[in-house]
Structure formats: C-alpha cells, structure tokens
Structure to design on (255 residues):
C-alpha cells in the first residue's frame, strides 16, 4: 500500500510537509507505520500549483529517500496547493509512468489502495473509457485507470463527488458480474488548482487509512500522521469525503 499527503491553504514550502516532519512522507517511504508494507520504495511523485493554470509535476521511479533532487525541489518550491505520493507497487511494475500523481489539464490525482483482482477487471474497465482518454493512458496501474474513469464522468457533466461515487460503484458492479470477491479499497485525493477533495472508501470494512489536520493557514491530509501530534489528526470515516475550498472544509458521506 502507498502513502500520500495533500495540502491546501496559505503558500508554504513543500519541504514543510514532505521532508521536515519527524514522520514525513520521505520517512514513510522508508518506514511507514500504518501500511501493510513498511517500505514504499517503488517510486514517488509531487504535484503543485504555482502561477500557471496547470500544475507542475515531478515523478521518479527511484525511492524518495535516495533522491537529492526531490529534497532540493521541495526546499525551494512554495505552493498553496500540492500533493505528494510514495509508492509500494501492487501491480503494473516499477516505472515513471506508474508513479503518482496522475494529471490531466488542471487536475491532479493520487491514490492508495487497490482494485481487487484487477487483471481480470482491467479490460472491462478500460472499455468504459472514451477513445481520447484511453489514448492518454501511459501506465498500467489501476490508480491511473480509476482517475481517467473519473475524468470521463466529469467530462460528461458530473461533479467530483458524483464522478467518484459512480466509478467506485460501477467498478464493484463489474467485479460482482465477473464473480470477483476481492475488495475495492480506495483512499485518494484530487485537486483542480483551487479546490481539494479527499476520499476514504472501501467495498468492505477495511478502507486505507486517511487523516486530516488543521495547519496554520490551511489543511493537511495524509495517509498517516506526520509527527508527534497524532492526536491532532482526525481520521476520515469509512466512505467519507472531505472537500477543502475557500479556506474551510466540508465533511460528508460519499452518498
């Protein structure tokens, strides 16, 4: 299972969350505490919004703890909205194309979890993509495919939460039709440059961990607390969505 974080608020240096905390995301890439696999060394990525409409993205397939470029970049880039991800591959192989965040236009997406028995489901799910989005698929992960399926629903007019709900429910329905009993587990964050959404969802009772914490001037969301202040991090409930916008948050079930 992967680890990730996302931030929305006043502009801060990326290193303030990605690198500096005692249990930072870089530290979690080497020794996570709430994941099935302690080491998340199969690549990493960061995405951030600056002065342009579309985000900057840096992804690499080496471990986060061994990349000096990541540390230098995070020490010099300030952003009001960014996300970062360290990967423990559950499928698709170790490659830059399979590293998060995935991006399309102004959107950024990161995911932790897995589609149960994905090799059997993959063809059926990919068939749901319109040609223009199928042609943009570069990797082989279930995460990228779920993101593109969400983008397809949004292009048809659905909002982020409705698109997410439909993709998750449609994926479970497709699994049931094929007799697949392995669960779909989905912890994710998506941003559009102004707003941030985070979701914790599962078709069983074991969604991947996800927490939210107020920061000075903003909000941080992470797979697990980043420091010694674990009590300040509030866990999302199963099948809950958090929407961060205009300096405030809304929390509700993903109906």
């Amino acid at each position: 299972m992967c680890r990730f974080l996302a931030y929305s608020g006043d502009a801060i240096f990326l290193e303030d969350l990605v690198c500096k905390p005692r249990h930072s995301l870089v530290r979690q890439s080497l020794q996570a505490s709430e994941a099935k696999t302690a080491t998340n060394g199969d690549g990493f990525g960061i995405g951030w919004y600056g002065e342009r409409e579309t985000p900057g993205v840096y992804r690499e397939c080496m471990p986060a703890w061994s990349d000096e470029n990541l540390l230098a970049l995070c020490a010099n880039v300030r952003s009001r909205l960014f996300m970062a991800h360290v990967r423990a591959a559950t499928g698709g192989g170790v490659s830059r194309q399979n590293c998060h965040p995935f991006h399309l236009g102004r959107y950024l997406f990161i995911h932790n979890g897995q589609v149960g028995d994905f090799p059997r489901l993959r063809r059926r799910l990919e068939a749901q993509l319109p040609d223009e989005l199928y042609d943009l698929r570069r990797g082989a992960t279930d995460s990228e495919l779920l993101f593109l399926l969400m983008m397809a629903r949004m292009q048809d007019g659905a909002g982020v939460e409705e698109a997410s709900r439909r993709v998750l429910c449609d994926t479970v329905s497709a699994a049931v039709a094929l007799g697949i009993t392995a669960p779909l587990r989905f912890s994710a964050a998506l941003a559009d440059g102004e707003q941030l959404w985070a979701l914790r969802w599962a078709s069983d009772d074991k969604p991947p961990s996800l927490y939210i914490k107020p920061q000075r001037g903003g909000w941080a969301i992470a797979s697990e607390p980043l420091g010694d202040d674990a009590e300040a991090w509030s866990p999302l409930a199963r099948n809950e969505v958090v929407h961060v916008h205009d300096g405030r948050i809304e929390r509700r079930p993903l109906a």
Q: What stands out?
A: The CA atoms of residues 2 and 142 lie 13 Å apart. The longest strand covers residues 3-13. Residues 3-253 form a domain with the Glutamine Phosphoribosylpyrophosphate, subunit 1, domain 1 fold (CATH 3.60.20.10).
